[in-house]
Design brief:
The chain is of the alpha/beta class and 425 residues long. It has helices at 10-21, 25-37, 53-64, 81-89, 102-113, 126-133, 150-161, 176-199, 215-226, 247-256, 264-270, 286-289, 310-316, 358-377, 389-402, 412-418, and strands at residues 44-48, 68-72, 93-95, 119-122, 144-147, 168-171, 207-211, 230-234, 260-262, 273-276, 297-300, 318-323, 326-330, 336-340, 383-386. It is built from 16 helices and 15 strands. The strands form 2 sheets. An 8-stranded mixed sheet has the order 9-8-7-10-11-14-13-12, sandwiched between helices. It binds adenine.
Length: 425
């Protein structure tokens, strides 16, 4: 039992899935092992992920491991309807379509939870939050979860701090093999891909403001530079997470990387295109929207649609839809501002956003599959856990191997050298 936009789209979805399957060697090898060993036999797995072709390959891998898989999308706009139809045909329980209302979105998460999951996989923590808030009767059944993204981990850590997280969750995002590549190279390429497909504008020569210089912002800025944009980086002075550099450090890194660095009010006056990647609300607020040039294009690459004050745009501006994922707001003073994908994830909003490149998601979802297996084989305490380093290294090694690269280990002599405190000779 599934609920998708149109089951007749399954044929197209199957071709999309096939294209991805052929380019995801890490998931293919995990799938082959899962088929033999059935580590998920008899378990129900609830997933709340951007439901596109690469996610489909992950879900098939879990099914091959013996799981009964239930899938909702973690964002109302990011389901590829043809892929959803194909997955439903192939025996995954899918509750997702592109363009869900807020009510439909939460109803679909509830339908996934009706599958009585033994474990969950989230991107953004909405399913885990729904479990703790509205479906507490299911908690005793849950052995744990995995979380894909920075925003989800931030929410989970807050739950943990308040003593409210009632099962173990593996922070997949925090694996080196995830954030160093997915957040940087994945977001860098997919964000610009989404903007270019929605607008068809030239980025070379434009002043493009990147708001937030975390791993995603770094990736976006790097790719923009490659395209010939004039990049301005915006940061704040605070430290968001303990153990990480503050906004001051990130701003300095951006400056030394050759970017112009400004506060958001200064940048608002000069930008042609704005891209938010902060994970925080109102990174571009009404006071900044008031300063922007007519014609400015606004896009968000952060998980939630609260980084750009779109309520202000809707309240002040006369709205016209130019096409899917491209809205014009004519402000009272005559300026025209353009918002992409309703301020939701520009790199995944269908049909202009396709998500990260396939090879990147092969790595990220390999960590998901292996972390889920680890979680189910080991009894972890309630709380947020790092991905074990063996899994992290294994995935980096597999990614290199899929590029034809194999690296040697240190020799015994070198190991001894590195562990000695005597004078180096
Ligand atoms: N495809 C599936 N999940 C994704 C994610 N979190 N980011 C980008 N592309 C994706």
């Amino acid at each position: 039992m599934s609920k998708v936009k149109d089951p007749k789209l399954a044929g197209n979805g199957e071709k999309e899935l096939d294209w991805a399957r052929g380019r995801m060697p890490m998931l293919a090898s995990i799938r082959a092992r899962f088929e033999k060993e059935k580590p998920l036999k008899g378990l129900s797995i609830g997933t709340c992920l951007h439901l596109e072709k690469k996610t489909g390959v992950l879900l098939e891998t879990l099914k091959a491991g013996g799981a009964n898989v239930f899938a909702a999308s973690c964002n109302p706009l990011t389901t590829d309807d043809s892929v959803a139809a194909a997955l439903a045909k192939n025996g995954i329980n899918v509750f997702a379509w592109a363009g869900q209302s807020n009510e439909e979105y939460y109803a679909n998460i509830n339908s996934v939870l009706d599958g009585k999951p033994n474990a969950v996989i989230d991107d953004g923590c909405d399913q885990i939050f729904a479990l703790h808030k509205n479906r507490r009767e299911l908690l005793p059944n849950i052995r744990g979860g995995c979380e894909e993204t920075t925003t989800g981990i931030t929410r989970l850590k807050a739950m943990e701090k308040d003593g409210k997280l009632e099962f173990p969750v593996i922070a997949v995002n925090n694996a080196y093999s995830k954030y160093l590549f997915d957040n940087r190279f994945g977001t860098g390429q997919s964000t610009l891909d989404g903007i270019m497909r929605a607008t068809n504008v030239l980025l070379a020569g434009k002043t493009v403001v990147v708001v937030g210089f975390g791993w995603c912002g770094r990736g976006i800025a790097d790719r923009l530079r490659g395209l010939g944009a004039n990049v301005v980086v915006v940061e704040i002075s605070d430290r968001i997470r303990k153990g990480e550099p503050s906004g001051l450090h990130k701003a300095l890194e951006a400056l030394y990387s050759g970017y112009r660095v400004m506060d958001i009010s200064s940048a608002a006056k000069v930008g042609d295109v704005f891209i938010t990647a902060t994970g925080c609300r109102n990174a571009i607020g009404s006071e900044h929207l008031k300063l922007m040039k007519s014609g400015a294009i606004l896009a968000n690459s952060g998980h939630f649609d609260n980084e750009i004050d779109k309520e202000y745009l809707a309240g002040q501006g006369k709205r016209r839809e130019i096409k899917t994922n491209l809205e014009e707001f004519v402000m009272k003073d005559g300026r025209k501002l353009y918002l992409l994908s309703e301020g939701r994830l520009v790199n995944l909003s269908q049909p202009t956003g396709q998500g990260h490149p396939i090879e990147i998601m092969d790595g990220s979802f390999a960590i998901q599959a292996l972390s889920l297996e680890y979680l189910l084989k080991n009894k972890l305490k309630h709380g947020v856990h790092d991905v074990p380093l063996e899994i992290d290294d294994k995935v980096a090694g597999m990614a290199l191997e899929s590029n034809g690269i194999r690296l040697p280990s240190l020799t015994k002599e070198q190991l001894d050298y590195l562990s000695s405190w005597e004078e180096g000779t």
